[in-house]
C-alpha cells in the first residue's frame, strides 16, 4: 500500500501549528513528515510529541524546510510574511505543495512571494474555511447587485494577540466588494478614522478592527443604503476549521500543475 503523503508544519509551537498537528494525526489520508520552528527556538532538536506534552512520536523539530521536504509532499505555513517568502523558495526548489495561511503581506511582498514559489503549487488564502470563502463569493455578488451607491463597511473581530489589522479575511471581503463595484480596493479603502474626518467618500469601502479576549474570528460586511441595510456575517468558533481547510488544500494540490491558487479553486467555487 502506498504511504500517505507527508506534510511539514511550520511554526509548530503556535496555536495553528498545534492544531494542524492534531488534525494530521486524526487523518487517514496524510501523515506528519516534519515540524519546523524558527532558528534558536527551544524546541529545535527535540521530539515534537514530548514538546506537545505527550509521548515521543519520532518527529524531531527542525528549522530547515529544504531538509524536511525530502520526505514530504507539502508544507503548511501559518507564520509571518518574511518567513513565508523564504519557505516559498524551498517549496519551489522541492516542487512541493505550499499551503499559505499567513496574512499581513504588503503588495511588494505578495509579488516576491509569487516569484519565490516558482515550481510549486502555491495555495494562499486569508482564510481557509468553507464558510468564509462562500461569504466572499456572496459579497462580490451583493456588491455588484447593489452598486457603489450603497456604502460598504467590513467589521472584523479577533483575539487580542493578533498582530495584523485589518485581518486577511477582512481584506478578502473588501477585495470582493471592490470587484463587485468594478474598482480596485487600494483606490477606495478607508482603513482608519479618527478626529474630524469629513463626510464619507462616495464609493469608499471602510474597515474596522476589534481586538480582545479569545475571539477566534468574526466578520461582518455591512451594505448601507437609504432606509435599509444588508448585513452578511460569518462567525468562527473553532480554530480547527482553518486547519481542516488547509489540509483539504494540501490534498487538492497534490498532482496539480505548479502555479498560484486560492481556496476558491480548492472548493470549486
TrEMBL record:
<dbReference type="GO" id="GO:0019877">
    <property type="term" value="P:diaminopimelate biosynthetic process"/>
</dbReference>
<protein>
    <recommendedName>
        <fullName>4-hydroxy-tetrahydrodipicolinate reductase</fullName>
        <ecNumber>1.17.1.8</ecNumber>
    </recommendedName>
</protein>
<keyword id="KW-0520">NAD</keyword>
<feature type="binding site">
    <location>
        <begin position="168"/>
        <end position="169"/>
    </location>
    <ligand>
        <name>(S)-2,3,4,5-tetrahydrodipicolinate</name>
    </ligand>
</feature>
<dbReference type="GO" id="GO:0008839">
    <property type="term" value="F:4-hydroxy-tetrahydrodipicolinate reductase"/>
</dbReference>
<feature type="binding site">
    <location>
        <begin position="101"/>
        <end position="103"/>
    </location>
    <ligand>
        <name>NAD(+)</name>
    </ligand>
</feature>
<dbReference type="GO" id="GO:0009089">
    <property type="term" value="P:lysine biosynthetic process via diaminopimelate"/>
</dbReference>
<keyword id="KW-0560">Oxidoreductase</keyword>
<feature type="domain" description="Dihydrodipicolinate reductase N-terminal">
    <location>
        <begin position="7"/>
        <end position="128"/>
    </location>
</feature>
<feature type="binding site">
    <location>
        <position position="37"/>
    </location>
    <ligand>
        <name>NAD(+)</name>
    </ligand>
</feature>
<keyword id="KW-0028">Amino-acid biosynthesis</keyword>
<keyword id="KW-0521">NADP</keyword>
<comment type="similarity">
    <text>Belongs to the DapB family.</text>
</comment>
<comment type="function">
    <text>Catalyzes the conversion of 4-hydroxy-tetrahydrodipicolinate (HTPA) to tetrahydrodipicolinate.</text>
</comment>
<dbReference type="GO" id="GO:0005829">
    <property type="term" value="C:cytosol"/>
</dbReference>
<comment type="pathway">
    <text>Amino-acid biosynthesis; L-lysine biosynthesis via DAP pathway; (S)-tetrahydrodipicolinate from L-aspartate: step 4/4.</text>
</comment>
<dbReference type="GO" id="GO:0051287">
    <property type="term" value="F:NAD binding"/>
</dbReference>
<feature type="domain" description="Dihydrodipicolinate reductase C-terminal">
    <location>
        <begin position="131"/>
        <end position="267"/>
    </location>
</feature>
<keyword id="KW-0963">Cytoplasm</keyword>
<comment type="subunit">
    <text>Homotetramer.</text>
</comment>
<dbReference type="InterPro" id="IPR036291">
    <property type="entry name" value="NAD(P)-bd_dom_sf"/>
</dbReference>
<dbReference type="InterPro" id="IPR023940">
    <property type="entry name" value="DHDPR_bac"/>
</dbReference>
<dbReference type="InterPro" id="IPR022664">
    <property type="entry name" value="DapB_N_CS"/>
</dbReference>
<feature type="binding site">
    <location>
        <begin position="125"/>
        <end position="128"/>
    </location>
    <ligand>
        <name>NAD(+)</name>
    </ligand>
</feature>
<dbReference type="InterPro" id="IPR000846">
    <property type="entry name" value="DapB_N"/>
</dbReference>
<feature type="binding site">
    <location>
        <position position="159"/>
    </location>
    <ligand>
        <name>(S)-2,3,4,5-tetrahydrodipicolinate</name>
    </ligand>
</feature>
<feature type="binding site">
    <location>
        <position position="38"/>
    </location>
    <ligand>
        <name>NADP(+)</name>
    </ligand>
</feature>
<dbReference type="Pfam" id="PF05173">
    <property type="entry name" value="DapB_C"/>
</dbReference>
<feature type="active site" description="Proton donor/acceptor">
    <location>
        <position position="158"/>
    </location>
</feature>
<feature type="binding site">
    <location>
        <begin position="11"/>
        <end position="16"/>
    </location>
    <ligand>
        <name>NAD(+)</name>
    </ligand>
</feature>
<keyword id="KW-0457">Lysine biosynthesis</keyword>
<dbReference type="Pfam" id="PF01113">
    <property type="entry name" value="DapB_N"/>
</dbReference>
<feature type="active site" description="Proton donor">
    <location>
        <position position="162"/>
    </location>
</feature>
<dbReference type="InterPro" id="IPR022663">
    <property type="entry name" value="DapB_C"/>
</dbReference>
<keyword id="KW-0220">Diaminopimelate biosynthesis</keyword>
<dbReference type="GO" id="GO:0050661">
    <property type="term" value="F:NADP binding"/>
</dbReference>
<dbReference type="GO" id="GO:0016726">
    <property type="term" value="F:oxidoreductase activity, acting on CH or CH2 groups, NAD or NADP as acceptor"/>
</dbReference>
Amino acid at each position: 500500500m502506498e504511504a500517505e503523503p507527508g506534510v511539514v508544519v511550520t511554526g509548530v509551537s503556535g496555536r495553528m501549528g498545534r492544531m494542524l498537528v492534531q488534525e494530521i494525526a486524526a487523518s487517514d489520508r496524510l501523515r506528519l513528515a516534519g515540524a519546523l520552528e524558527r532558528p534558536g527556538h527551544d524546541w529545535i532538536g527535540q521530539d515534537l510529541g514530548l514538546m506537545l506534552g505527550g509521548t515521543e512520536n519520532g518527529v524531531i523539530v527542525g528549522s530547515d524546510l529544504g531538509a524536511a521536504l525530502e520526505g514530504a509532499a507539502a508544507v503548511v505555513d501559518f507564520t509571518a510574511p518574511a518567513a513565508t517568502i523564504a519557505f516559498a523558495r524551498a517549496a519551489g526548489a522541492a516542487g512541493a505543495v505550499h499551503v499559505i495561511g499567513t496574512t499581513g503581506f504588503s503588495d511588494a511582498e505578495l509579488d516576491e512571494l509569487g516569484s519565490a514559489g516558482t515550481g510549486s503549487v502555491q495555495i494562499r488564502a486569508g482564510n481557509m474555511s468553507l464558510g468564509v470563502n462562500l461569504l466572499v463569493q456572496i459579497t462580490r455578488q451583493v456588491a455588484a447587485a447593489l452598486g457603489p451607491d450603497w456604502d460598504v463597511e467590513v467589521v472584523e473581530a479577533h483575539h487580542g494577540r493578533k498582530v495584523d489589522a485589518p485581518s486577511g479575511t477582512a481584506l478578502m471581503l473588501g477585495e470582493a466588494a471592490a470587484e463587485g463595484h468594478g474598482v480596485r480596493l487600494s483606490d477606495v479603502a478607508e482603513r482608519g478614522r479618527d478626529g474630524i474626518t469629513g463626510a464619507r467618500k462616495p464609493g469608499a469601502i471602510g474597515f474596522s478592527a476589534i481586538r480582545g479576549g479569545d475571539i477566534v474570528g468574526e466578520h461582518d460586511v455591512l451594505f448601507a443604503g437609504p432606509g435599509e441595510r444588508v448585513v452578511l456575517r460569518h462567525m468562527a468558533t473553532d480554530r480547527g476549521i482553518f486547519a481542516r481547510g488547509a489540509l483539504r488544500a494540501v490534498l487538492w494540490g497534490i498532482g496539480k500543475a505548479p502555479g498560484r491558487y486560492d481556496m476558491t479553486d480548492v472548493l470549486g467555487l
